[in-house]
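Sample entry (385 residues):
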Amino acid sequence: MFAPVYFDHNATTPIDPAVVDAMLPYLSAHFGNASSRHEYGRAARRAIDEARGRVAAALGAHASEVVFTSGGSEANNLLLKGAAARSRPGLLAVSAIEHPCVLKPAEQLAGTGWTLRTLPVDADGRVDVARFEAVLAQRPKIVSVMWANNETGVQQDIEALAAMAARAGACFHTDAVQAVGKLPVDFRRLNTAGVQAMTVSAHKIGGPKGAGALLLDKRLDVAPLIAGGGHERGLRSGTENVAAIVGFGVACELAAARREEHARTTLALRRRLEDGLRGLGATLFGQRAERLPNTAFFAFPGIDGETLVGQLDRAGYAVASGAACSSSNPEPSHVLRAMGVAPDLARGALRVSLGGGNTAADVDGFLDSLRVTLARLHGLTAMAR
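Predicted structure, serialized as tokens:
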């Protein structure tokens, strides 16, 4: 079967064989409900407890701070809506470049009496500190800023922003879905700085889809989104997806152990890629900011991004025209719009997000195919005139 070179690891990652091996027993012989009191149930509960410990250890947290969810979207909604439910409506501030699973619940809260402020970013996608301080002066109750952007890879100085928010008395949350496995993550250090909640997800780090977690300061009062049997300390009711949780634990452990090597190899490949892209006339977004080592976001003037994605897929390279969760939306990337990128250029944006299985030969082959594809598209454009 034809398998394109996979350059879309920020959307999802291939599941690690060790993760599959760890999950398989819980898809067959160990099928018990973790709430049952017999041995089948106790075995499932032990597996969840062990996985919780693995996630906590990999992320510098205590096991009691890990609340399992179905993924990053649920964890983000749990924090925003759950924290809002424990407070009278006030000011809520989120960055302009958040994933839709932060922006959409924030907009929903704005319809229930909360005042929403969108934190602007500069031309390279970094939160504008002066304007952040201006919003903090209005005493927001909840602030959410993602650690590393899923499209551009641009990193925020989360510790500094959290410390500023803490001094203003705000609850500070960060979506760290893209940071885990690529950057050093220590929730204890972040929590000391002022981060009270952090979202993580399994399928971005070689784990299964359908598992994630909210790391939560135990002093923070959050109402559950899902009421029921009181699972996850009453914060997330529902029979646990034991196999996925077990896989998440192993994936976190592996990601932490491999992080330095992963960062080193993907950064070398990204630099090789971006050197070639510059030679082809690409505009690189966020290049003056600190970025994830594996992520390049770029465009070619006059070339439609969706068209280019389709052409490259046929040539054997799987890339993205933006965030996978919103790829059906024909509008330009909201992240690039927030950065002040012209709509025509933003519509041409492509993202390459590298993984541990990619090679220099993959990058070189991609650049060769891209060169040929661009020449063909430019030729068609010229003929249309």
